[in-house]
Amino acid sequence: MGIAGYTGILIMVAVAAAFGGVVVLLSRLIGKRQESREKLMPYECGIDPTGNARRRFSIKFYITAMLFIIFDIEAVFLYPWAVVYRSLKIFGFIEMVVFVGILLIGFLYVWKKGALEWGSKSI
């Protein structure tokens, strides 16, 4: 399958990009631009913002977010493995045991360090 097989896709991408560019350009040329205090104010779920946006947050929020992402990625790898488990036989099982074991060691390390504690105990 040469370049001719991709002609339709290339045309569709070109038309979509051209349409997007034309719409943005027209809105810029035709649309009204009236700046006001309310329009420039940040929107926070319908509630007027309070305080400073540059406030510092505890590192625990970031550590918890990173841990969530790591274990979420683990779940993403477990689903395809479960689908093809029977065709992988014992090799696939051992590989997944190693993978989950490494993650378990990391989880136990994080737990022992106290990264999951929200109390006054520091990391």
Task: Compile the SSE list and pairings.
Layout: H1 7-30, H2 37-40, H3 59-83, H4 85-113
Helix pairs in contact: 3-4
The overall pLDDT average reads: 84
CATH topology label: Methane Monooxygenase Hydroxylase, Chain G, domain 1
Number of strands: 0
**Uncertain regions spanning at least 5 consecutive residues:** none
Order of helices and strands: HHHH
The appropriate CATH architecture is Up-down Bundle
| Largest sheet data | none
Q: What's the CATH first level?
A: Mainly Alpha
What level of helicity do the residues show?
55-70%
Write structural notes for this entry.
The protein has one domain: Methane Monooxygenase Hydroxylase, Chain G, domain 1 (Up-down Bundle), CATH 1.20.58. It is built from 4 helices and no strands. The protein has 123 residues and is an all-alpha fold.
Short description:
The protein is an all-alpha fold. The chain is built from four helices and no strands.
